[in-house]
Amino acid sequence: MLLFSTDIDGTIYDGPDSARTFSDFWNGLRSRPSPPLLAYNTGRSIDDTLRLISETHLPSPDYLIGGVGTEILHPETGQLLEDWTATLRSGWDVAKVESLVADEAEEIEQQPEECQNPFKSSWFWHGKTRQDIDRLQERLDRGGLEAQVVYSSARDLDVLPLKANKGNAIAWLAESLGVDLDRVAVAGDSGNDASMFLVDDVYGIIVSNAESSLPAAVSGARIFHSARPCVEGVIEGLTRLLVS
Ligand SMILES: [Mg+2]
Question: How far is the CA of 11 from the centre of ligand 1 (A)?
Fold first, then answer.
């Protein structure tokens, strides 16, 4: 493994102890010859993630993918990777997305300002079915918007540029770093993680506390289903990969 892309909440983090557990494990890997790169891949914004890292034992990552694949930060230099952002612009119009979603969806509420970015329109929409999500996607398609709808935790609705998701972001990053995809591992627990598991050739770890929709969405040959929750499941999956 040369690159590990992991979701944070519910995957490696569910409180201070989990952060310490992950940090101990990862620092052990960093002391090995040719240590892998760590990329957090989260729905949180970049600023919110940096705050979490500073307040917990979570190790500093080599890359930070925030806002469900819409932003990639290289923390060492503090630079956003603008080449990635540039690939998201085509066919994207956030103002049009916002007005269409507000018109079409009932009982929907915009998430706070810090959850939005120029390539991510985020909403609370409780208890929706696959059909509700598909219907909204159809309306966006008919409106000529190159946008995709991602729904997680029976509550969080993100509308993103067609190309922006966690999977495309990590595939782009791996290519730009010259890392073959069969040397990439990913881990996650919810709907917005599915795209990571669907990247060809990657090794995937699904933790036992994952939403039931996740395994169903990503059935594939190189996926390890841990019987353990959160960070314990991630460590089990990585350990298996590293000894195999
Ligand atoms: Mg999660």
Answer: 6
Span from the CA of 144 to the centroid of ligand 1 (angstroms): 30
83 shares a domain with 103: no
Distance (Å) from CA 14 to ligand 1 centroid: 10
Strand partners, 160: 148
The rounded Å distance from CA 147 to ligand 1 centre is 22
For residues 208 and 111, the answer to whether their CB atoms sit within 8 Å is: no
Rounded Cα distance between 26 and 35, Å, is 9
- Cα 9 to ligand 1 centroid, rounded to whole Å: 4
Domain-terminating residue out of 161, 196, 215: 161
Q: What is the CATH number of the domain that holds 149?
A: 3.90.1070.10
CA 175 to ligand 1 center in whole angstroms: 24
**What is the gyration radius of the CA atoms in the chain, in angstroms?**
17
Contact 201, 116 (CB under 8 A): no
- Per-residue pLDDT of the chain (244 residues), as tens digits, is 999 999 999 999 999 999 999 999 999 999 998 899 999 999 999 999 999 999 999 999 999 999 999 999 999 999 999 999 999 998 899 999 999 999 988 899 999 999 999 999 999 999 999 999 999 999 999 999 999 998 988 999 999 999 999 999 999 999 999 999 999 999 999 988 999 999 999 999 999 999 988 988 887 769 999 999 999 999 999 999 998 7
Residue 176, CA atoms < 13 Å, CB-side half-sphere: 13
